[in-house]
Sequence to fold (289 residues):
Amino acid sequence: MAYTVKQVAALSGVSVRTLHFYDETGLLKPARQAANGYRFYEEAQLLTLQQILFYRELGFELKQIARILGRADFEKVAALQAHREVLTETLARAARLIETIDKTIDHLKGTKNMTSEDLFAGFSVAAGKDRFDEQIELGGEPNDCKVSARDTNGAMCAFEFTGGGGGPRHLHHDQDEWIYIVDGEFEFQVGEKRFHLGARESVFLPRKVPHAWSSIGGKPGTVIDVYQPAGRMEEFFRELGKYRNRPWVHEVLTLPELKQLFREHGMDVAGPPLTGEWKVDEEGRMTSA
Fold:
């Protein structure tokens, strides 16, 4: 069955003007266009529009969505499963907070007493969870916020990361960083110095000094990562967390866009990661070997 642009607008809630814009930019082309200029859409285009709306809801920019949908290995079912996971986690967190709000309202009205533990239910951080139950992943590896900037008035924030690491060399303009190894073995490059660290060891990464780190042999480990002051690290990790499944962030953003993302959060990219080799393709995207 074919739908006119007005019918698609009515079905989806997307304006006719926006659908025309998606066509003009190549984000969503109609199945065909009649001689009189009328656009017609079929099921394949409706499914693509659904993906666009899901990614928009998750905070992606249109140019990022275009790159994701344009990849040869893009798979609709896998994408829908990833969307469902994110929305399920968000719904569960909202339900817990609503329950806490309802108990607080009853307590303030005097209809039901609330214990001190109930007062802060939903705000304690359990093992394998993060401060706001967001379940942020970096390249598919969990990075749980344990202490938020909101808790410290911006003085510091702390994360528990489990995985291999491997991000690019970078520096923080206004933050010192301290990493404690819970388990596993990691290699660190801090300025010109190289460190091989294991469980119960730690390293200090001063502001304005380029650094990078990665697990040894690709084996995952766990670290506690502390930033002082907190800066915009939570926002930075939330942005990276949008790319929780393939394609990863470096496969969607061009190198200039990745550098801009770091700059917007108080950092500069200073070089490739410690492991593998980054190559930039003809479209400016990075591939890691």
